[in-house]
Amino acid sequence: MSSSTTTTTPTSKRPVVLSGPSGTGKSTLLKLLFKDHPNTFGFSVSHTTRQPREGEKDGVSYHFVTRPEFERAVTNGEFIESAEFSGNYYGTSIKAVKDVLDAGKICILDIDMQGVISVKKTDLNARFVFIAPPSPDALEERLNSRGTETTESLEMRLRTAKKELAYAAIPGNHDKIIINDDLATAYKELERFILGEPKQ
Ligand SMILES: Nc1ncnc2c1ncn2[C@@H]1O[C@H](COP(=O)(O)OP(=O)(O)OP(=O)(O)O)[C@@H](O)[C@H]1O
């Protein structure tokens, strides 16, 4: 899977939004991509209202902010997405994505359908890739074999998957749909879409 004898010059540094049902293989594909191209991609630094843990640096691990600061930023429309988990806010700001671009890297966002809709409302000029399962049964099988789901969470993920697949079926919602059946084939397709043709 590694392309050690080839180099790639990205044809575009536009942010890439990767979405698709849970268990469809997004993390698996991204892990391969980052391994093969270690200096090409960057992660946006999220905001949080939780306290920094030992060793965490502001602006590196997270942008640590107060609740009023976070709420103000949400009101000002500065976030692509935000959510509250166990009493703390977390969010990805539009600026955090632009900072990655300013650092000369391609920002990859692995987000859900709501996140996709939010990014489309910004001026980030992102490219949208949808990772689809070969079939609903294959998706269920992958989630089962990953061993991370309870019966309830599995059902919830499959219900959400139906909505995501319906959204992806509408032409124009994504720039590229990749069916992750054979992993190596799907990976090559993703790598080409993001980085262009490899130069020998
Ligand atoms: N092409 C493939 N064929 C078979 N199994 C696969 C394939 N791609 C990924 N998997 C397996 O499917 C499971 C789900 O993959 P992964 O965790 O990458 O999904 P995900 O889309 O990132 O899910 P989530 O959104 O819940 O984080 C993993 O166990 C992974 O090893």
Structure description:
Strands 2-7-1-8-9 form a 5-stranded parallel sheet, sandwiched between helices. It is globular. 40% of the residues lie in helices and 19% in strands. It is built from 7 helices and 9 strands. With 200 residues, the chain is an alpha/beta fold. The structure holds adenosine-5'-triphosphate (ATP). Adenosine-5'-triphosphate (ATP) binds next to helix 1, helix 5 and helix 7.
| Sheet with the most strands: spatial strand order | 2-7-1-8-9
Task: Specify the structural class.
Answer: alpha/beta
Q: In total, how many domains does the architecture comprise? A: 1
What is the share of helical residues?
25-40%
The major pleated sheet works out as: 5 strands, parallel
Could you give the distance between the termini? 15 Å
Which geometry do the CA atoms define?
A: globular
Proportion of residues in extended strands = 15-25%
Question: Mind telling me the CATH superfamily name?
Answer: P-loop containing nucleotide triphosphate hydrolases
Name of the top-level CATH class: Alpha Beta
How are helices and strands ordered from N to C? EHEEEHEEHEHEHHEH
Q: Calculate Rg over CA atoms.
A: 18 Å
CATH topology: Rossmann fold
Low-confidence stretches: none
Bound molecules: adenosine-5'-triphosphate
Quickly list its features.
single chain, 200 residues, alpha/beta, Rossmann fold, 7 helices, globular, binds adenosine-5'-triphosphate
Provide a quick synopsis of the model:
By secondary structure, this protein is α/β, with parallel strands linked by helices. The protein is built from 7 helices and 9 strands.
